[in-house]
Design brief:
This protein has helices at about 15-25, 90-100, 110-120, 140-150, 160-170, 215-225, 240-250, 265-270, 285-295, 305-310, 325-340, 340-355, 360-380, 385-395, 400-420, and strands at about 1-10, 30-40, 55-60, 105-110, 125-130, 155-160, 180, 200-205, 230-235, 255-260, 275-280, 300, 320. The protein has about 425 residues and is of the alpha/beta class. Strand 6 (about 155-160), helix 5 (about 160-170) and strand 7 (about 180) form a beta-alpha-beta unit.
Length: about 425
């Protein structure tokens, strides 16, 4: 089976890039796999990609930033989508051409705007799988409306948590679409797990407001007051760096809290610690939580929607505390810091429990979903909307009548060409 991932860009270190690389590389052990990057802005990916996975970009921003079509706003990629400004008529054209000509059996979209392209433009022989890496509640109402219309043409929609899958089933009304949770996977560790003896707490992720590193730093002030021998290392870059540096200085924590910058891969940094921590207001999944647990660290996390509560068993392999509660976060950290045996026992349990996020079980789950969807197609599940409904969807997304006609004609021409092969 040939499987193609349609990715925003493959050249950074974000969570969606990481999990796409992880799943693609695991699937490549059994299938032909490629990653199609809508955008490219550097020569090589930051993350290492297995040579078995083909990578090809569609628009190279190093050379095509001033392309006339790139100066015009996108028409297919939804205007309400967060990344809309980075898309254009040029990306519309290149993505449409890629989908019309693909020989993949399965195409997997990895963000809402790309899922819309996939739903509206993929030829009929392609199994359409849309991935959601953010929760439904995280999308603005206008985007939810656009997705509700387009997503009805998908075969499969996956979310990263059971809670979000339930929300999509209940609120989006997607008849005939298989909606199921498919957690992110984390590769098997190559380094020995942490032994829980280092006096180091580790956090990782973008230095962005939603991650609430300010709450974490303030909570660690409580830790440092009782246990000044412990350190907090925060890995990541972002717009909050200067503000967080100022907070560390104001609290007098320059010998206890360190902004370490980005690290890739993170495994070598996790194993140097004894406790992982996350203070986020929101985590669609919680990739860093799983990474820490796979390295033998118990994780203290806010119990934010939806991911942490589906990953951590409170009191078993980590701790869950209320969102925004500095005192509770500090107290949970101190509980593990003060009790060496509890910390090490939770770390061993975290290592064992996190095996469910290893590549093999996630790949088997993904294959089962694709097989189930293909079987549903063969046995006559409700078909995708016909041309009249496609036209309505496109017009509702802002297409002029001539653009709609062109899109439908292109799809019809591609169908004819396929029939002549």
């Amino acid at each position: 089976m040939k499987i193609s991932f349609l990715l925003h860009h493959a050249y950074g270190i974000g969570g969606t890039i990481t999990t796409t690389f992880n799943l693609a590389q695991a699937l490549a052990e059994r299938h032909e796999v490629e990653i199609v990057s809508a955008l490219r802005h550097r020569e090589r990916p930051t993350l290492t990609l297995d040579p078995k996975v083909a990578l090809r970009p569609l628009v190279d921003m190093r050379h095509e930033k001033e392309h006339p079509l790139h100066l015009r706003p996108a028409r297919v990629f939804p205007e309400a989508e967060y990344r809309h400004r980075q898309y254009s008529e040029l990306t519309d054209q290149r993505i449409g051409e890629y989908l019309a000509s693909t020989d993949a059996d399965v195409v997997i979209g990895t963000r809402p705007g790309l899922n819309v392209h996939l739903a509206l433009q993929a030829p009929e022989h392609v199994l359409r799988v849309g991935q959601e890496h953010l929760s439904l509640d995280n999308h603005p109402p206008r985007l939810r409306s656009a997705l509700r219309r387009a997503y009805r043409r998908l075969d499969v929609l996956t979310t990263v948590t059971e809670g979000d899958a339930a929300a999509y089933r209940r609120r989006m009304r997607l008849p005939g679409v298989l909606v199921e949770a498919l957690p992110n996977s984390v590769p098997d560790p190559v380094l020995p797990a942490s032994d829980g003896t280092a006096k180091v707490v580790v956090a990782a992720g973008r230095l962005a407001p939603v991650k609430r590193y300010d709450v974490l730093i303030e909570a660690f002030a409580l830790v440092a007051a009782e246990r000044p021998d412990w350190r907090l290392r925060i890995y990541g870059n972002g717009e909050e760096h200067a503000r967080l540096r100022g907070l560390i200085d104001r609290l007098g924590l320059h010998e206890n809290v360190f902004l370490m910058g980005a690290a890739a891969p993170m495994e070598a940094e996790w194993v140097k610690g004894s406790i992982g921590v996350s203070a986020s207001d929101f985590e669609a999944f919680g990739m860093t939580i799983v990474e820490a647990m796979r390295c033998g660290l118990p994780v203290v996390s806010t119990d934010c929607p939806h991911g942490p509560g589906e990953i951590i068993q409170d009191g078993v392999d980590g701790r869950l505390v209320p969102v925004g509660d500095r005192a509770a976060l500090g107290a949970a950290l101190l509980e593990l810091i003060h009790d060496d045996e509890l910390r090490r026992r939770m770390g061993r349990t975290a290592l064992e429990n996190a095996r469910r996020f290893a590549p093999l079980p996630i790949v088997e789950h993904a294959e089962r979903l694709m097989d189930e969807a293909m079987t549903a197609r063969r046995t006559g599940r409700p078909r995708a909307p016909e041309a009249g409904r496609i036209r309505n969807v496109l017009v509702s997304q802002g297409f002029a009548a001539r653009d709609t006609a062109y899109t439908l004609a292109s799809r019809a021409l591609h169908t004819v060409r396929r029939g002549r092969r």
